[in-house]
């Protein structure tokens, strides 16, 4: 969407062909990245080049041996309006000064194959000025443009994760016997199953509505629904998977079943890609704004 | 659906014309009516008549001065299979032996105009055998047939109640100032508003899906969704209205705003028409049954 | 604690003898009284008198026919520091200009005997200057001094209310039969009972510790604990009573049992005497303040 | 408490001297061990020996290179009363037939140093009959006797874990800045801190009361309180640590801070040593039993 023809030929084509992988390098350990204006990595112009300096973590998928490229967010103009300070730039991981320090695990799990996400030092990494994505100062706008699709994708996966956990729970409680009958006969277990179904069905429909809105209108029109599923989907998945874990006893938290790992990844999504608190704040402000003049109802 | 032509001419026509109103008289103070097989009121054949004897409460709308008729559920054959013991019969409130004892209020509110629901003694009330609705022993089946539409109707009203509460909350927090700014600027209030929106949007879609399923298939096919919204809708409405009350302070629980009364009626629906626990149990059993053979997922 | 000898002889003696009752008149319908600096009622000096003008509600116990006196909080010096603007003054309800408008009910219940609390207009009510309680500007300080004891008293009553609800629940589920056994045999009901016990035992101990701290040190030293029980006690009581209501079905919300009324009064205490949000804020600020220098732990 | 002089000389002395460590080997992967009567490992008499056969997991601390001994629970008499079927026996890990298969990790973490707990196969392990702990059939009674002290110890550690998380949260939110101020100034964060304090103070007091009861009476008298803290302590710790994680963002789930690991271990204790559901059931039955005759209140 934002790459030049040259950038696309050089990077997008091999990405689409599955020859290489890329990382998105935005969050920083030293600042509260939930407020993107905090980002401190510098991207400084120096003749025909940019020089990138900063430390990032949770750079997505950067531990993969095939990961060849990072899209790095950083400050090009510290004096500009807060939402025009940032730019994105393409940084090949093979450049001198790029140091992949370690995998950033979540609850003891690598977040993805080959070690998942990474902490990366960019130590005066020099790339040609043509590596900038879009214009100087457009980093925030590019981030906004891609977040909607990324979020609905996370939510769809979370539904699949929760569905699987509910399915595993239903099987387990049918098989296991305690106190004279199958676990499935216990009222508390039945309550978990029913509530899991009730929550999942509601979530599934809101994710579908959001995807439909994005397909038929645009990400901006769907922003309130996107924020809503970004809060609701991890919360529901975390709850359903946790109940499935409890129904499994020790097996639920062991490496023999995917449940504990699914839980850790669902929980991570209450922080990644904007913590819940930021999305709730956006929804509330949006609702309060739309309500002010004549207050015709809770929804559009 | 179940009345004879004569029953319809005598009662349904004036009901549709708004000349009279009717009560549904099922729940009894002396037994746990959540298990309908507990119902103890007797409907005994005596020549060409039935004699009705028992005590009911929460007989819907029976306090209305226009209420002329009760549909009474009771046991016609105590020896039959539990689900074939009950019948429904038409009992004019003007018959000797019908004693409307009092309004059954909820949280200090009459549940409907003119005092709402009532506690009624049926003391050897004699009605012609032609007043029976359907066949002897069909009471449970008739109840099942009407519960789906009744429940989706409750849920639609609950959404309206919660929408109104959210709307009132948004207005209030915009107007009121505390600790140096409008309440709307406080993060905790924003969280309530966002969560209200997130929960309501999900609920709304599940109620719509359920209504669509009922319209395009039948109540039996939609039974899992009907049970789900019967649990989810009061829970969500109770939560949203409660937060709106809290945002209003004293005004929220005062008679000046509808919020406290809306809350009481929403809360009542976690008990009326089957308590939450019964619906959760049905959902869980239904899911566990459908899961057994090959377990293809959480939904049909 | 703050009255002159003359004030005590005239009012405190008949109060202690039970001949009259008094009302505390602070909260106002037009402002967010959770922030006491919002209070707008004026108490203006005019020669040897003060003239009181404003509207109050939730004036405690003012509907009682024996209520003879209101302690009114209002602004004596609008230009002073926010916490020195207010004073308290003694206003006999029989004075011209005092209009008790109505009972301010909570969820359909009068909050106390004889109609409970009241909305009162003070329309240029003239009282002698000697009716002022303490000095001009001391209203806020007097309020602070009495809030601790008032709050621990509320919490003790809430524990009694919740204990009674738990007791009623245990009896009911032992007697009532549904689905082939007593309700007490159902796992979901057992979970409510266990959680009610677990929460109540913890709450009881914190209230006891708080009372002990107040007795052995002073209200200021115990301020964090007082705020904690003011949040915890109504929340626990509301939860326990609500579960007891659910276990009773229709009877729980009917006027036949005290549960619905107990619930309404417990819920009211999440708003009255400072809403939960204000107390949480105080606790957090207090903890953050004490933590700053060397952060030796979560408690003192 | 149950070992003979010979057993104590051989094993207890080196344990107390820290020369060796021991494992407790009770839970089995193939059955719901929450119901201890399900345990299937066999301990069969054969001449002067017992032969132990079965598979255990979560054998505590068995991955330690210094772990020399397992106390194994198993069936000595399948025909006996369910609570007299089991015995405990001392099994040196060096015996032929003992196969330590792997570490049983929790949420990706080893549960203890050196890999923590283990899955162990006991394949016809032969030990002298004098290795039996107590009498044949006393396994259940021995387990009961040691569970109280074990549980209060877990709860004390959980309080320490939650205290540390609250302390870390308070520091973090004071340091980090987002949206124009420190996180500590945000109402939602303040609410987490206040609720953490409110919950922890209540829990701390109930754990202290329980320990005092155990010290001054006996484990049986304190059984209701022991069960209560076994439910309350992990739930509170899990909640407090989770909020501390959320306040830290990515750092909270990373290996740089102890929070994610603390959470995993706290969560594990909602399953280990009896899942919450079993303890809640015991509390409810105990309360209902004590209530029956005259129902004098919720507590003893």
Please characterize this protein's 3D structure.
- The structure is a homotetramer of 300-residue chains.
- Chain A is of the alpha+beta class and 300 residues long.
- Chain A has a four-stranded mixed sheet with strand order 1-4-5-8. A four-stranded antiparallel sheet of chain A has the order 2-3-7-6, with no helix packed on it.
- The first copy, chain A, folds into two domains: 5-135, Butyryl-CoA Dehydrogenase, subunit A, domain 2 (Beta Barrel); 140-291, Up-down Bundle (Butyryl-CoA Dehydrogenase, subunit A, domain 3).
- Mean pLDDT of chain A is 93; it is low at 293-300.
- In chain A, helix 3 runs antiparallel to helix 4, helix 4 (223-248) packs antiparallel against helix 6 and helix 4 (223-248) crosses helix 7 (276-291).
- Chain A is 45% helix and 20% strand.
- Chain A is built from seven helices and ten strands.
- In chain A, strand 2 and strand 3 form a beta hairpin.
- At the A-B interface, helix 2, helix 3, helix 4 and helix 7 of A face helix 2, helix 3, helix 4 and helix 7 of B.
Structural class of chain A: alpha+beta
Mean pLDDT of chain A: 93
Please describe the biggest sheet of chain A, giving its number of strands, its sense, and whether it closes into a barrel. 4 strands, mixed
Enumerate the strands of the largest sheet of chain A in spatial order, edge to edge or round the barrel.
Answer: 1-4-5-8
CA(first)-CA(last) distance of chain A? 29 Å
Helix share, percent of chain A: 40-55%
> What pair of chains forms the biggest interface?
A-B, 48 and 48 residues
Within CATH, the superfamily of the largest domain in chain A carries the name Butyryl-CoA Dehydrogenase, subunit A, domain 3
Rg of chain A, rounded, reads: 22 Å
CATH topology title of the largest domain in chain A: Butyryl-CoA Dehydrogenase, subunit A, domain 3
Tell me, what is the CATH class of the largest domain in chain A? Mainly Alpha
Oligomer: homotetramer
């Amino acid at each position: 969407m934002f790459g030049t023809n040259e950038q696309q030929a050089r990077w997008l084509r091999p990405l689409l062909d599955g020859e290489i992988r890329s990382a998105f390098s935005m969050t920083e350990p030293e600042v509260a990245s939930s407020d993107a204006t905090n980002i401190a990595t510098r991207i400084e112009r120096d003749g025909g080049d940019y020089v990138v300096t900063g430390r990032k973590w949770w750079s997505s998928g950067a531990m993969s041996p095939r990961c060849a490229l990072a899209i790095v967010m950083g400050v090009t103009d510290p004096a500009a309006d807060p939402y025009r300070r940032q730019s994105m730039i393409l940084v090949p991981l093979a450049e001198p000064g790029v140091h992949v320090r370690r995998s950033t695990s979540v609850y003891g799990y690598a977040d993805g194959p080959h070690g998942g996400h990474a902490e990366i030092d960019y130590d005066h990494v020099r790339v040609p000025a043509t590596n900038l994505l879009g214009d100087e100062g457009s980093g925030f706008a590019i981030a906004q443009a891609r977040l909607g699709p990324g979020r609905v994708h996370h939510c769809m996966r979370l539904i699949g994760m929760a569905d699987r956990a509910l399915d595993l729970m239903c099987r387990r409680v049918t098989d296991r016997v305690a106190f004279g009958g199958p676990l499935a006969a216990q009222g508390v277990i039945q309550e978990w199953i029913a509530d899991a179904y009730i929550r999942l069905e509601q979530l599934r429909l809101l994710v579908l509505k959001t995807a439909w809105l994005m397909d038929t209108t645009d990400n901006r029109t769907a922003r309130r629904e996107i924020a809503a599923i970004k809060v609701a989907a991890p919360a529901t998945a975390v709850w359903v998977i946790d109940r499935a874990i409890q129904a499994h006893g020790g097996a639920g938290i062991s490496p023999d079943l995917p449940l504990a790992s699914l839980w850790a990844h669902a929980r991570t999504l209450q922080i990644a890609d904007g913590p819940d608190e930021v999305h709730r704040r956006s929804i509330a402000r949006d609702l309060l704004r739309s309500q002010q003049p004549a207050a015709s109802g809770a929804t559009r």
